[in-house]
Amino acid sequence: MQAGQEQDRPRRPAAADIAWVGLWPAALLLFVAFLWLAPPLSHLLAAPDYPFFPEWRNLVKPEPLETTRFILALATPFVLAAAALAGADRPAERRFDPAVIALQVGAIGLAVWGALNQADGPYFPFVPDAPGYFKTLLLSIPVLVGGVVIGVALTLLALARRIPAGGGVDARRASAGWRWGALVVALGLTALWILPALDTDATVGASGLIPSGHIPVAAQDYFAVANGRTPMVDFVAQYTQLLPLLVAPLLPLFGLSIT
Fold this sequence. Notes:
The protein is mainly alpha-helical. The chain has helices at 2-8, 15-21, 23-42, 64-85, 97-116, 133-138, 141-159, 176-194, 209-226, 243-247, 251-254. Among the domains are: 8-117, no CATH class; 199-259, no CATH class.
């Protein structure tokens, strides 16, 4: 009797199906939240209640609605991931392949459109060194092409069964040397990725108008907390709210300077 009841009970959807197919309703719900939920929620955010200096009024403008929509967009992947964790650990169903392929093609098309139509300066008020800044440093065509080549190569290897479709090596069965080697490679790539973001007192002044102008402004959120201010209480941060509370105990270890 129990076996028959288990057969009649609907199977849990596969985690992969939830992760991929769930992107459609997640994107739709996020769009609806942008239109109808974000405006009333934006009134709950702390905003400056004082006038800015006259020379800053054209540059500084609080955007609580944009911030609220950013928070909703940031939370959506976590909600979808939590839903995927409730799925069954079994292969995805082939009947969802058309929807998944359509989603992947649409995402690739959106990335290509964004790369081809991104702004490339001049960017007021940093006109002198802005031309070429966005396409060269933020989302360059060579980086996108390299990503496509790597993705196509890995796909072909997976289709040819030269590598397992679920990943290259089972971490549970990998040797200690392989795991440590993978960790070293990951740390090296991470260091290379963040290396252009590191500045010292000697280089910040020669980093161009955009970085040298933005670094002090971005640092003010952290120094405000170090000076005894509390975000969303007696200080309205421009870039981040709660992160300075975690970083503040570390700042004295390296000296309270910009870099």
